[in-house]
Write a structure and sequence with these properties.
CATH topology of the largest domain: Rossmann fold
CATH architecture of the largest domain: 3-Layer(aba) Sandwich
Order of helices and strands: EHEEHEHEHEEEEEHEHEHHEHEHHHHE
Number of strands: 15
Helix content: 25-40%
Oligomer: single chain
Number of domains: 2
Number of helices: 13
Largest sheet: 9 strands, mixed
CATH class of the largest domain: Alpha Beta
CATH superfamily of the largest domain: HUPs
Shape: elongated
Bound molecules: adenosine-5'-triphosphate, magnesium ion
Distance between the termini: 36 Å
Length: 401
């Protein structure tokens, strides 16, 4: 007898009623995507998700589940018939299967939602515990602080036994909360901002501005690599690559140097908003953090934000750089982010950017040239690639979720 299921507990206990079932359906579908290629069956059962394991790559499956948003925790589970001897044997097998860490004490917690089963839960506990004690040597019962809790649930069709919990990623299932455009540079911050946005159930489309030939092919590849890492948390991401060279050279010519950065950001916002409209995305996410650099002072944000009515989500807004780096390392984007390729923001820009740009002046300088046509051109020439988890090459495929 060995573990043959994984029992998944859904996060955000506050979610009730109809919403809950929408979330569970989305979560089951996201789990299916992440476990594509593994021999598993995903079922929704009594307010949980049960994964039938027919695959020996249990460890790999566990690692993949740790990255799925909306999972509060999960446990390997063993399914047995509703019959006392089977349950006793199952409990012992489950405990022994868990013993790669030292187990000195255990307790049994039995539940009997199936009232047709003849033994009630109070009587089941000692019957199961006694059997385990008789068949092991160096283990005792501790009902207050056990090393392992053997949980037994006698359901209608079968009994499920679990020992121990693996913490999930928390959050909400991706795809249940609408879609944003993530402004993705090649830096450390924006991938983290994308991760944190997805954590709240929101799907992301990435948008990256590049300025060939001043930014090179490898910088573009780096951004694709970052997107590919992020697909681990959601399955599929569409990446919009916006040609930005003409806009940047024009800003360089037409705008006073100390406002170039501010105007460049305003142009990025306008283009992002247009692509958001096309893609039915309801907001823009950035990796900005207050005060980090000249473009991220409150004054700058105020002047840059003026050009869009879309909500701007800034998950990192109050974080210190070190906190962001910690998350980047945890989610696997850090090593790629620190590779040294030029970002389009760093070319052409003079070093003396205003830290307190004013809206009136930004508007006035933008009057120097017909930027609207350039914005439309950049949108029209945007290249779109769909990047999928588990695939080496990007492909144009339908959205998975
Ligand atoms: P990051 O580490 O994400 O690059 P940063 O600290 O370097 O951030 P900035 O370069 O000021 O900060 O960029 C602020 C935000 O603007 C980024 O987090 C990102 O959301 C967006 N951004 C910057 N450059 C680009 C780009 N080339 N394409 C798309 N978005 C960008
Ligand atoms: Mg940057």
């Amino acid at each position: 007898m060995k573990y043959d299921h994984i029992l998944v507990r859904v996060g955000e206990l506050a979610l009730k009623g109809k919403n809950r079932s929408v979330f569970e359906k989305a979560l089951a579908s996201n789990i299916n995507v992440v476990l594509k290629g593994y021999d598993v069956k995903v079922h929704r059962m009594f307010g949980r998700i049960m994964i039938e394991l027919h695959d020996t790559r249990e460890e790999e499956i566990i690692e993949k589940l740790k990255d799925v948003f909306g999972i509060h925790s999960f446990s390997l589970a063993l399914k047995v018939e509703n019959e006392l001897e089977q349950i006793q044997k199952g409990a012992l097998a489950a405990l022994l299967d868990t013993r790669n860490q030292p187990v000195r004490t255990f307790k049994v917690t039995a539940k009997r939602p199936n009232k047709n089963f003849p033994i009630d839960s109070q009587s089941l506990n000692p019957l199961i515990g006694g059997y385990v004690l008789t068949n092991t040597e160096d283990i005792t019962v501790d009902v207050h602080n056990p090393d392992v809790e053997i949980r037994v649930e006698v359901r209608e069709a079968a009994t499920y036994i679990t020992c121990g919990n693996i913490p999930g990623a928390g959050g909400l299932p991706v795809g249940t909360g609408g879609k944003v455009m993530l402004m993705l540079s090649g830096g450390i911050d924006s991938p983290v901002a994308g991760y944190l946005t997805m954590k709240r159930g929101v799907k992301i489309n990435a948008i990256h501005f590049h300025s060939p030939p001043y930014t090179n092919e490898r910088a573009k590849e780096k951004v694709k690599d970052l997107v590919r890492i992020l697909t681990k948390y959601c399955g599929t991401i569409q990446l919009h690559l916006v040609p930005f060279t003409e806009m940047q050279t024009t800003i360089h010519e037409k705008i006073p140097g100390d406002y170039a950065m501010t105007i460049m950001r305003r142009m990025m916002m306008r283009i992002s908003e247009k692509i958001a409209d096309q893609q039915k995305a309801l907001a823009i996410t950035t990796g900005e953090s207050l005060g980090q650099v000249a473009s991220q002072t409150l004054h700058s944000m105020n002047t840059i934000n003026e050009v869009t009515n879309l909500p701007i989500i800034r998950p990192l807004v109050t974080m210190d750089k070190l906190e962001v780096i910690d998350i980047a390392k945890k989610i696997g984007t850090y090593e790629t982010s620190i590779l040294p390729f030029e970002d389009c923001c760093t070319i052409f820009l003079p070093p003396n950017s205003k830290t307190r740009p004013r809206r009136e002046l930004a508007n006035k300088f933008e009057g120097n040239f017909d930027f609207a046509a350039l914005i439309d051109k950049a949108v029209a020439e945007t290249e779109v690639v769909t990047i999928r988890n588990q695939a080496k090459e990007e492909q144009n495929v339908d959205h998975l979720f």
